[in-house]
Task: inverse folding
């Protein structure tokens, strides 16, 4: 399986002299593609498709447009963008009049999450962005957790294609910081995405073997759903959920929010210790690498003193 860089090197060989002796292509084009500054032109996409079947569908996928579109520009284009997705996904997110269903119930989200594909991720991301633009806090919360679960479910496949961590970082930098509700905000600054994505697949296989399911494929949806919900491997839900930190931008952090953050860290530390996970394997050191709870007390005292 080729990574995007390897595919680009094949495409560019003969035009720019190929890669350097160490196998790394020094052309300035690929870093721009990797950062999303530019996208490959149509001719390059066609060449990629001839080399690796299916490349065009990935390179032209509407997900990249959903992520790239400027804020406050999505409302008018959202329904048209959804019509580029598979019929199964369209049936879930569009009603009979082609209006978008901004639902956030358990059954609706799980139905989308079972479409383990870029189409499912694109639909959930678009719904999340719409909810953020409309400031619908309850839906923002539900969609954000659903997008994170989908990124984890797709993680192994995305990482094998060489784009998993780059894509997650894009969400962590551009999408999730805008997820605010109840005075809290997602904090994914030290989130061990690749480790969690691999751990999820390991737990799926472990559960499959332990339960002796006759057909793994027939039961994989149920297994994944239950693991993400805290069944079979309760520690995984604790580790995979994001830290919720007080949103200082909207006012002083409430003592209850600080206490909740401290409790989240204690639970994550306990889950790591019980399961033998440590920082030498790449897992975060919650007592040091994540901002200590006391860092949030100083802003609270500042707000308090300024009101006296």
Result:
């Amino acid at each position: 399986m080729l990574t995007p860089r390897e595919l680009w090197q094949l495409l560019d060989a003969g035009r720019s002299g190929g890669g350097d002796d160490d196998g790394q292509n020094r052309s300035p084009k690929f870093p721009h593609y990797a950062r999303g500054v530019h996208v490959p032109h149509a001719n390059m996409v066609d060449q990629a498709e001839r080399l690796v079947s299916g490349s065009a569908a990935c390179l032209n996928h509407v997900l990249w447009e959903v992520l790239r579109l400027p804020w406050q520009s999505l409302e008018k284009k959202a329904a048209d963008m959804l019509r580029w997705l598979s019929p199964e996904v369209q049936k879930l997110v569009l009603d009979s009049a082609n209006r978008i269903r901004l639902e956030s119930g358990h059954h609706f989200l799980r139905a989308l999450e079972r479409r383990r594909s870029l189409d499912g991720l694109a639909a959930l991301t678009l719904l999340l962005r719409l909810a953020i633009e409309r400031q619908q806090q309850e839906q923002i919360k539900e969609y954000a957790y659903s997008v994170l679960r989908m990124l984890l479910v797709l993680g192994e496949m995305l990482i094998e294609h060489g784009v998993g961590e780059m894509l997650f970082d894009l969400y962590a930098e551009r999408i999730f910081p805008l997820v605010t509700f109840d005075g809290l905000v997602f904090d994914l600054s030290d989130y061990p995405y690749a480790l969690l994505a691999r751990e999820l697949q390991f737990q799926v296989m472990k559960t499959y073997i332990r339960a002796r399911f006759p057909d793994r494929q027939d039961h994989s949806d149920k297994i994944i759903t239950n693991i993400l919900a805290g069944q079979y491997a309760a520690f995984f839900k604790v580790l995979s959920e994001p830290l919720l930190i007080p949103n200082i931008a909207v006012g002083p952090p409430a003592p209850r929010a600080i206490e909740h953050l401290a409790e989240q860290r204690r639970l994550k530390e306990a889950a790591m210790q019980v399961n033998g996970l440590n920082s030498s394997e790449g897992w975060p050191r919650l007592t040091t690498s994540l901002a200590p709870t006391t860092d949030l007390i100083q802003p609270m005292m500042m707000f308090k003193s300024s009101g006296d």
Summary: The longest strand covers residues 184-187. Residues 255-274 form the longest helix (20 residues).
